[in-house]
Amino acid sequence: MAEQWQDVLDHAVAVAQKAGKVVREALQSDRKVSTKSSSIDLVTQTDQKVEQLIIQSVKETFPAHRFIGEESVAAGEPCDLTDEPTWIIDPIDGTTNFVHTFPFVAVSIGFLVNKQVEVGVVYSCLEDKMFVARRGKGAFCNGKQLRVSDQKDIHCSIVATEFGSNRDGGAVEKIFSSLRKVVCLPVHGVRGAGSAAINLCLVASGCVEAYYEIGVHVWDVAAGALMVTEAGGVLMDVEGGALDMMSRRILAANNRHIAEQIVGQIQAFTPQRDDAPPQQHRRFYPK
Question: What positions carry a catalytic annotation?
Fold first, then answer.
């Protein structure tokens, strides 16, 4: 008897590879850019094309499964996570990177059952790195098993974070206040790949000790979150409680000691939840 959800993992890897090829080809052509919630929350025709490719492929093989896709939600579909088998898709995590040809662009596919992530696939298209994880079976990149860093000293750590697309003055002030406190712990450095999925994979790979962000979405983190825990890391809310992937707040770290020290530096705020009624207003934004 085949192991449970292995067929899902195999299909997710195959469709992520196809999606990655579309992304790489699109980089050679003109990329028409639109916006969603603000002038810096970008979307391209490639985002939409890749999401349609993934959903159509999955529907043909798993017709009873549900979907939450970034572009589908932006178009008005509900972001309702049930106990049913659900694919959570970010067709291009790092759209701003894609628009500017900054080399960290990922296809992120998470698969949840009973609201628990069973399978995660993150394909860093331009690096040709395929990150995969299955609950209880470990996390791997191009076949090599991943382990988080064994660093226990926050002062010898690298922390990843992002500024997100929220430019509200109060939120920006809290983001910079938190960053200042983290830098002044001090830590070895602060980095950011411009992709939540890749930042989580960097934690899982042991390249950085921690990653935190306020303003991410469930499709940004579903797959990468499993990568972290299967590589031996921990996940929590930025204020130290249990992670709620619909809350748009996440802290991932190699161990709880590092995580708790970062929690003490974060000036948190609460964005609108992913499962709140959508309030998206898309318009054309010339490149």
Answer: 70, 90, 92-93, 95, 220
Is residue 220 classed as helix, strand or coil in its secondary structure? helix
With left for phi above 0 and alpha for psi between -120 and 50, is residue 2 left, alpha or beta? Answer: beta
Q: What residue spans of 231-273 are helical by DSSP H?
A: 256-263
* Phi, psi (deg, nearest 5) at residue 56: -65, -40
Pure H helices in 136-283: 169-183, 196-205, 218-230, 256-263
Determine the Cα–Cα distance for residues 162 and 192; give it in Å rounded to an integer: 6
Contact 25, 279 (CB under 8 A): no
Percent of the chain at pLDDT above 90? 87
Cα angle: 148, vertex 119, 16; to 5 degrees: 100
Q: How many residues does the chain have?
A: 287
In this predicted model, what pLDDT tens digit does every residue of 21-30 receive, in sequence order? 999 999 988 6
Give phi and psi for 132, each to the nearest 5: -135, 145
Q: Are strands 129-134 and 189-191 parallel, antiparallel or unpaired?
A: unpaired
Complete domains list, the chain, with CATH: 6-145 (3.30.540.10), 154-263 (3.40.190.80)
* 208 secondary structure, DSSP code: S
pLDDT in tens, 28-83: 886 778 887 766 667 789 999 999 999 999 999 999 999 999 999 999 999 999 99
CB atoms within 10 A of CB 24: 13
Kindly report the backbone phi and psi dihedral angles of residue 126, in degrees, each rounded to the nearest multiple of 5, phi listed first: -80, -25
